[in-house]
């Protein structure tokens, strides 16, 4: 059982480049989330989705975009990378609204923008 | 507004000693409370959760936490720490609207032999 799979694990981007962080889950969870983790700051919600075709902004959505065309996949897009987006990104999923279930997390993508 | 405070940035304990990690929250209603553990280079793993009922909840790996409404706290405890418990621990509170958790800034645990 793979759970939540994130790719790539590491990436270095130059300022202004774009990239997509991939997230896939095989648990048939409706709810999926993207968080970023900065040192000493905890986790901040970027975007979330309550099902295929439905997405919404979280606490820190600026500079990011998402799509949810299938239940399994929830990619995160960075269009014009900035140094402020250097962070560790975590994708998570849950079978019901997060406050009722808790999350299953992926192992993260460490992104550096130079 | 909801918030979570973990007052201890870093804690060091000896293997076999007891452990208590503090978590205080700010929330207007009965919160949903969680503790997660993050090993180096890994994602977060759910240790335990509290929704209602018995205020002492048991989790995985021998951890427990106690919800104290009067103190707005949800402290994590373990009677005897193992070297493999060295990790980062996060407390989180679930909002009753929307789909957002609020995470604390984490407590890093070091276990010495």
Structural features, described:
The complex is a heterodimer of chains A (114) and B (113). Chain A has one helix at 98-101; strands spanning 4-7, 10-13, 19-25, 31-38, 42-51, 54-57, 64-66, 76-78, 87-94, 104-105, 109-113. With 114 residues, chain A is mainly beta. In chain A, strands 2, 4, 5, 6, 9, 10 and 11 form a 7-stranded mixed beta sheet that branches. In chain A, strands 1-3-8-7 form a 4-stranded antiparallel beta sheet, with no helix packed on it. In chain A, strand 5 and strand 6 (54-57) form a beta hairpin. The relative contact order of chain A is 0.33. The mean pLDDT of chain A is 91. Chain B is mostly beta strands and 113 residues long. Helix content of chain B is 0%, strand content 52%. Chain B has strands at 3-5, 10-14, 19-21, 24-26, 32-38, 44-50, 56-58, 64-68, 73-78, 87-94, 101-103, 107-112. In chain B, the strands form 3 sheets. In chain B, strands 2, 5, 6, 10, 11 and 12 form a 6-stranded mixed beta sheet that branches. In chain B, strand 8 (64-68) and strand 9 (73-78) form a beta hairpin. Chain B is globular and about 40 Å long. The chains are: A mainly beta (114), B mainly beta (113). At the A-B interface, strand 5, helix 1 and strand 10 of A face strand 5 and strand 6 of B.
The structural class of chain B is mainly beta
SSE pattern of chain B, N- to C-terminal: EEEEEEEEEEEE
The overall strand count of chain A is: 11
Contiguous uncertain segments of 5+ residues of chain B = none
Give the largest interface pair and sizes: A-B, 27 and 24 residues
Indicate the proportion of strand residues of chain A: over 45%
Radius of gyration of chain B: 14 Å
Percentage of residues assigned to helices of chain B: under 10%
Q: Between the first and last Cα atoms of chain A, what is the distance in angstroms?
A: 36 Å
Oligomer: heterodimer
């Amino acid at each position: 059982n793979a759970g939540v799979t994130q790719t790539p694990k590491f990436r270095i981007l130059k300022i202004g480049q774009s990239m997509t962080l991939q997230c896939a889950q095989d648990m048939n969870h409706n709810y999926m989330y993207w968080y970023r983790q900065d040192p000493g700051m905890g986790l901040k919600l970027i975007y979330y989705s309550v099902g295929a075709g439905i997405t919404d902004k979280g606490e820190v959505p600026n500079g990011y975009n998402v799509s949810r065309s299938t239940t399994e996949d929830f990619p995160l897009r960075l269009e014009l990378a900035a140094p402020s987006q250097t962070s560790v990104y975590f994708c998570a999923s849950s079978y019901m609204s997060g406050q009722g279930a808790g999350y299953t997390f992926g192992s993260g993508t460490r992104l550096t923008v130079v | 507004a909801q918030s979570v405070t973990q007052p201890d940035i870093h804690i060091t304990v000896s293997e076999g000693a007891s452990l208590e990690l503090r978590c205080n929250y700010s929330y207007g209603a009965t919160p949903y409370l969680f503790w997660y553990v993050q090993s180096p280079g890994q994602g977060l793993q759910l240790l335990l959760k509290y929704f209602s009922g018995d205020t002492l909840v048991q989790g995985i790996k021998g951890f427990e936490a106690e919800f104290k409404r009067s103190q707005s706290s949800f402290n994590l405890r373990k009677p005897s720490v193992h070297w493999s418990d060295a990790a980062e621990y996060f407390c989180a509170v679930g909002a009753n609207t929307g789909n957002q958790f609020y995470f604390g800034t984490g407590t890093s645990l070091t276990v010495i032999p």
